[in-house]
Amino acid sequence: MNTMTATTITETPLPAHSQIAQRTAGADFADCYTFADPQPASSAMETYLTVMGYTPGWMNFLMSVRNQAVRLVGLKHLGSLEVKMQAQDSKPAARYALGDRAGIFSLCYLSAPEVILCDDDKHLRVELSVYKHQQNGQPMVSVSTVVHNHNALGRAYMAIVGPVHRLIVPKMLSQSLHAASTAHQ
Asked: How large is the average pLDDT for residues 30-37?
C-alpha cells in the first residue's frame, strides 16, 4: 500500500461519469466529497476498506447513539461504521462480491474504479460510492452518498441526519485518512 498523506476534503458535485451519478433520479439527498487519492494503485474497494478501517471512535459512538434512538421507531440497528482491519477479522478486497457486507453496508456495485455499497430499510435507501478518477491529471477519490426516502419516516429521518451528515463526513474522512497515513509510516 502507498503511504497516505494529509489531504484536503472538498465538497463537489457527484462525478458525472460515476455509476452513483446514474442513481440520483428521484433522490431526496445527495452529496460528494473529493480528495487526492492516497492509494492511486489500489482499487476503489481497497481504498474503501482502508478509510473505513480507521473510522474515528467518535463516529462509532454517534452510530451507537443513532442505533439506540432509531430502535424506538422500529428501524434496524446498523452496527459500527468501522470495517475490521485486524488480520483475523479482515477480508482482502479482492474477495468481496456483490451482496457481501462491508461494515454497515452491502456491496451492490463493484468495479476497479468504483464501489457502491447500500443499505435499504423501510424508511429509506442509502447508497455510498467510492469512485477513483483523474481530475486535471491528478488521481482523485470521490465519496458520494445518495438517499431515496421511502416514506414520511425517511423524510423526517433525513431532515435531522442530512445536515449532520454534511458536517461530520468531511471531518470523519479527514481523520480516517490521517490515521491511516500515521499507521502506515
From this structure: 95
- How many CA atoms lie less than 13 Å away from 102 in the CB half-sphere? 33
Residue type, 130: V
| Alpha helices, H only, 41-139 | 44-52, 57-71
| Cα separation, 24 vs 145, whole angstroms | 10
What's the order of all strands across the beta sheet hosting 105-110? Answer: 10-11, 29-36, 138-149, 124-135, 114-120, 105-110, 101-102
Angle at 99 between CA 98 and CA 102, to 5 degrees: 95
Looking at residue 141, the DSSP 8-state letter turns out to be E
Q: Is the pLDDT of residue 149 over 80?
A: yes
The rounded mean pLDDT for the chain is 81
d(CA 58, CA 2): 26
Residue 173 CA to residue 128 CA, distance in Å, equals: 13
- For 68-77, 104-113, 168-177, which range has the lowest pLDDT when averaged over its residues? 68-77
Return the higher-pLDDT residue of 76 and 17: 17
The residue count of the chain comes to 185
Q: Let me know: does 14 contact 29? Beta carbons within 8 Å.
A: no
Using an 8 Å Cβ cutoff, are 53 and 84 in contact?
A: yes
pLDDT at 76: 54
Using DSSP's 3-state secondary structure scheme, residue 140 falls into: strand
